[in-house]
Design a protein that fits this description.
Number of domains: 3
Structural class: alpha+beta
CATH architecture of the largest domain: 3-Layer(bba) Sandwich
Shape: globular
Bound molecules: flavin-adenine dinucleotide
Strand content: 15-25%
Oligomer: single chain
CATH superfamily of the largest domain: FAD/NAD(P)-binding domain
Number of helices: 17
Number of strands: 22
CATH topology of the largest domain: FAD/NAD(P)-binding domain
Length: 501
């Protein structure tokens, strides 16, 4: 019976993998005569556009305000107590249905750095752990199997209120957003009397989008559940990079862009763009095309006021309505202690006392961190708070709270000595909050030859976070290739509609 269902479900979800565009292989690959492209922002979205267009002969110039590339996947060095150490913006999970990002990583020989995580774990306040390994990987059957994990019980399946959960299997990009973008996860959970364990699972999803349940759009959450759990047979399992992002991802991509005659300008914040003869003037240079791939916070600041957007009131309005998430924090510490249980995976979610959402064990995961750990006999831990409560505003208080909560989950670490630390307190993540979707801008804008890319841009296909960032950059590049009569890059995604949509 299960095998029959598995086949039916896979057929219904189009083999879990669909091609989103038609590639005409009769068209030429490379542009001639050469055209120029300005790309603003060196995160995954900007790097995606830059690498794809440089490979096809465009003269690409990438402007990045920081002195490092990668944006939220960035990595940089800092000095502390006589040592030079490397840190990153934060732990990142590379899910297996990130088809486009993974194809790109294969093309650039970066894929070999991915290593699997054993399980997706939620660590409860009472010390219990919730794992997801061992349940059926088939969408739909995985929900049925949540019984085995105690997340759902027989009552959930016979409870009349549970009929609402079928909506999760009916994800539809238009209908779901129309109906649920103004409903918060908190109110949906209350209305459906969601079982406590299921609420915690959803909460860990909501927090991965940097939003409190009261503000999180239920439509975005349904999309997330569809994308991560109900549209593919990879389960919630994922891979991580085996060394610092700089060595495994950023340097190879940078080298690829440079080898293809691209130019990278670091420490160059673009605060003004103008137009002359239908071309873009950026940093005193003229470009045929422009791809804006900055984060949502800086995009709003620059593009809602830029003179060249004046003739495009709809675009301006969209820029003015952009929102960043609430504040979040990342604290990495280099210590003289290790956790007691060596079998814990590299990364785990907590059910959060006040602000600690996740713990990453870097000394087990990344080569450079392992080396430091062996030399100094201590662990490297990273603590994330994806949304900070309103009362926690002071940097010292946030760090102390994060540490206190880590000691709650890992009491053996109490009394550790922190040899080095790097703390970030930021507010630049896109908001996936109530009612945001309607005014979210698309990649192609009203402004001719001006495109948007980033994890906050509305996509024609189903992707989120890093996959959304990569895919948006690649779609922007495809628009330019298509305008120039060239072959597009093939792009894929999971099925855009749920099992019962
Ligand atoms: C702590 C943390 C953990 C995360 N974990 C995961 C995860 O596990 N899995 C996952 O898929 N995603 C995760 N994400 C999300 C993921 O990092 C992002 O979705 C993705 O990296 C966004 O890429 P981007 O290119 O759209 O934007 P960004 O990375 O924000 O890049 C934008 C770039 O534009 C630059 N810029 C801004 N303004 C200007 C300007 N005026 N001029 C020039 N440059 C400018 C910025 O400096 C930045 O480099 C996480 C994010 C955070 C913060």
């Amino acid at each position: 019976m299960r095998n029959w269902l598995r086949k039916k479900i896979k057929d219904k979800l189009q083999g879990y993998r669909i091609q989103n565009n038609t590639v005409n292989d009769q068209l030429p690959l490379n542009v001639a005569p050469q055209k120029t492209v300005a790309i603003i922002g060196g995160g995954i979205a900007g790097l995606s556009s830059a690498a794809n267009l440089a490979e096809r002969g465009f003269k690409v110039t990438l402007f990045e305000k920081n002195d490092y590339l990668g944006g939220k996947l960035g990595s940089w060095t800092f000095d502390s107590n006589g040592e030079t150490l490397r840190t990153e913006h934060g732990f990142h999970a590379f899910f297996r249905q990130y088809y486009n990002l993974r194809n790109f990583m294969k093309r650039l020989d970066i894929y070999k750095h991915l290593i699997p995580i054993d399980d997706y774990i939620i660590f409860y306040e009472n010390g219990k752990q919730q794992g997801f390994a061992g349940i059926d990987q088939t969408p739909g059957l995985n929900i049925w199997d949540l019984r085995k994990k105690g997340i759902l019980d027989f009552w959930t399946f016979v409870n009349p209120l549970s009929i609402q959960y079928l909506k999760l299997l009916r994800y539809h990009p238009n209908k779901t957003f129309k109906k649920y973008d103004t409903v918060s996860f908190a109110s949906f959970a209350k209305k459906t009397m969601m079982p406590e364990h299921l609420k915690l699972v959803f909460n860990s999803f909501a927090r991965a989008f940097f939003s409190e349940p009261e503000k999180m759009s239920m439509a975005e959450l349904m999309k997330g559940f569809h994308f991560y759990f109900l549209s593919n047979e990879d389960g919630l399992l994922y891979d991580v990079l085996d060394d610092d992002f700089e060595y495994t991802f950023l340097r190879p991509v940078e080298q690829y862009i440079l080898q293809n005659q691209g130019v990278i300008c670091r420490n160059t914040s673009i605060d003004n763009i103008s137009m002359k003869d239908n071309k873009f003037v950026v940093n005193d240079h003229t470009f045929d095309y422009c791809i804006w791939a900055a984060d949502v916070k800086h995009t709003k600041r620059v593009l809602s006021e830029a003179a060249f957007t004046e003739g495009y009131p709809h675009f301006r309005k969209q820029m003015l309505q952009l929102n960043a998430s609430d504040r979040y924090a990342v604290l990495r510490i280099w210590t003289d202690r290790f956790e007691k249980n060596p079998d814990l995976p590299f990364f785990l979610f907590t059910d959060r006392l006040q602000c600690l959402d996740s713990i990453t064990f870097y000394h087990k995961m990344e080569k450079e961190s392992k080396k430091w750990s062996e030399q100094h006999h201590g662990g490297i831990f990273e603590l994330h708070a994806y949304t900070l409560p309103a009362h926690l505003t002071d940097d010292a208080a946030i760090q102390q709270q994060l540490l206190d909560e880590m000691f709650h989950y890992l009491p053996e670490l109490k009394g550790l000595t922190i040899k080095h630390k790097f703390f970030q307190h930021r507010d630049d993540f896109p908001a996936f909050q109530l009612g945001n979707y309607k005014n979210r801008p698309t990649i192609q804008t009203e402004i001719p030859n001006f495109f948007l890319a980033g994890d906050w841009v509305k996509l024609p296909t189903t992707a989120m976070l890093m996959e959304a960032a990569y895919t948006s950059g690649a779609i922007a590049a495809n628009h330019i290739l298509s305008t120039e009569g060239l072959q597009e890059y093939p792009l894929e995604s999971v099925c855009n509609e749920g099992l019962f949509a």
